[in-house]
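Late entry, evening session. Most of the bench is empty. Finally got around to the prediction I had been postponing all week. Sequence below, unchanged from the version circulated by S.P.
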Amino acid sequence: MSAPMSGPDPFRPPNAIPPSAAPSVTQRMLTSGRLARRFALVSLMLGVLIAILIGASLYVVSSRHLAGQHLANVEANANLAARQTEGLLNTLATTVRDLADNSVLATALVDSAGKETYLVPFLGSFNHIASVPVAIVFTDFEGDPIADNGLQSATLSIEPADMAWLRAAIAAGKPAATVVHQNGTHYLLAAEMLIYSRTSSPEGALLYKVLLDSLVLHPKAELRHTGDEPQPLAPDRIAVTVPLTVSDRLSALGIYLRLEAPATPTTALLSWMLPTYGMVALAALLAIYIGSRAVGSHMTRSLRELERLAGSIATDGFTGQRARVRGNDEVSALARGFNAMLDHIAAIQREREMRAAEEITIQRTLAKRAEQARAEAESARNEAERSRQEAVMALMAAERANAAKTHFLAAASHDLRQPVQSLVLLTSALAMRLGDHPASTLVGSLEASMDALCRLLDAILDISKLDAGTVSPSVQAVSLGAIFARLEEEYRLRAAEKGVAFRSVPTDVTLNADPALLERIIRNLVENALRYTDRGRILLGCRRGSGVLRIQIFDTGIGIQPEHLERIFHEFYQVSNPARDRGKGLGLGLAIVERLARLLGYRVHVASRPNRGSCFTLEIPMPALAAPAIAPAAAAAEQAPQPGRGIALVIDDDPLVREGLTLLIEDLGWRAIAADSAGHALHLLRMQPRPPDLVIADFRLEAGATGLQAIHAVEAALTEQGHAAPLSVVLTGDTAPERIVDAEASGYRILHKPIAAKEVARLLSDALLGGPDRNPGSSHGPSADPATGSAGRSDSAFMEG
């Protein structure tokens, strides 16, 4: 033998694929050869796949159908066998019960001498009942056998244990039945008592024993009872149990019939289904292959012609050849496309030139559109800038309108306060002079109307002062329980007059807050609840949360519609007061609550259900400290201070206010000096033998002068004469925020028009009782109101209801 050759294989083409990279047989069959054969192979493979899927689906469906049908057959057989067994059991029990009532057995109990002649043959006639072998024993009342039916065999006999069970049944004195297991076999053992009319106790008994399996006519069924242990069932087996309806003697045993069978009839299924399906599948696959081969050859005829035409063009060049078009399928479309390609070979250059011209036109069009888009973008930017400027101008106009509204309200409030002040003072002076005169009732009504108007003006003042930022909280330790107790004492009787129960929940919470402002918030919320509650109750209480203290006011009033919840904290907005009834408030209480809560850093919100009530919650984000409960002090009855005697200088450019204030001061026992300007006041002071004890000056005087300038001039004149400065008070009707800030910054005591007679009396009393430092204007510090402990009228207003 020659040695093996090394190096490259001389018989292998240089571009051949290496054996390791050669495609598989299946790949070669699908990618090489004629299209008709490849189409037939692909169709055959798809047919095999479809046949497998259809066969599997048919197998699953048929198996489930046959399994369901098989289970129904098993259940039907079990029910039929159960009904047959029920008939046998009922016949057996009825026959033995009738036998126990037979006169032959009664005679044998009395005369046992002739039992061989008639009793034994009689019992022997009952060897089988309904073709079922039965062993019967007839005994006396002690359970001793008298006679039997003579049926004794290896599988059915009366055992000593059976007789022992019978004696226990006789002792019980009533029929009994049981299932016994002897020698691997189950037996039905039952006894009937022989009780005759002459006695109520058993005179004897009839014991019968039956093989359980002999009662079942179905060869694969068996009887079971409730005492049997359940037998495990093989995975490929099913079992059907049917309870038996038997007589009362046997019903306590719980006898049921159990029939086992194979889970699915797989043998029968495979015996006919798989061969049949296999033959049908093979025939279908053969038909698919032959048909697809013929169809593929017909469909690829045009492709073979195109192949030959392309080869001739590649060899000889294009000489006007045309492809033959057959039909209107995809191959025909390919032939038409091939012809179109041949028709356009000569016109390729012309088409290129036309496309170049179109490209130039398109580029010019795009450039024009880009310029147009840039112009439109510039126009859009200009429009956006105009819109922004218009929005800014609209915002500025809105701010100017808001400022104009504020100035208008301030001017209107000032102009209203001037005549109201004169009315209040003149009415108070008239009331003091009338005394018990019959016209004093009319003055009382006039004072009530003035009081309502003053409350409206004071509420507007409170809103203005909060907007002006002149209210500064004075934080100190506050007993919340004392505030609750004080409010309950004040509002309990008012609520009772409306038929509403008002109660506060006692609490020992002490927190750091401004007592006046906190009580004003709670008071306004209680007033609001009382105003809109006509029945039920109002509850005031608090609860602690994680890092927050919630003060809540519950009521059972008219409630608030959801669309009004966002607006109830606006000024002059009332949900249920279209007629603006003064008895239902002014619509400013909740607005003051919202501003005070914002000032103190609190949060107030409301939850309400129409016609069910509301709950206002004040959340205080400060840790509440527990402290011993502080008993609220009883509120002392307010008494008008005794002003004593002194001289008061009144500076006001309004003659009515000046006259009313002068009359009231004189009615209170003082002497009043009235001036309309600072110069007039200085002229009058030079004519007085003693300096004034009190100076009351209006904030705005004629010709742009202010009351502050008048007070400074009076103080300077008195200082030059060596007199001490009197108590100086600035009286103003302005509610503009900037005016309030200027007035508060003066350091003098500020009173806002309209002031009542009791406030004038308190000023007169303070002027006589005060010491050298009674006038805070000398040091320009905050003036303390002795009655309220707050800075002038600015904070005392928040303590008034």
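Two things to note before I forget:
DSSP finds 20 helices and 23 strands in the chain.
Residues 471-626 form a domain with the Heat Shock Protein 90 fold (CATH 3.30.565.10).
Will write this up properly tomorrow.
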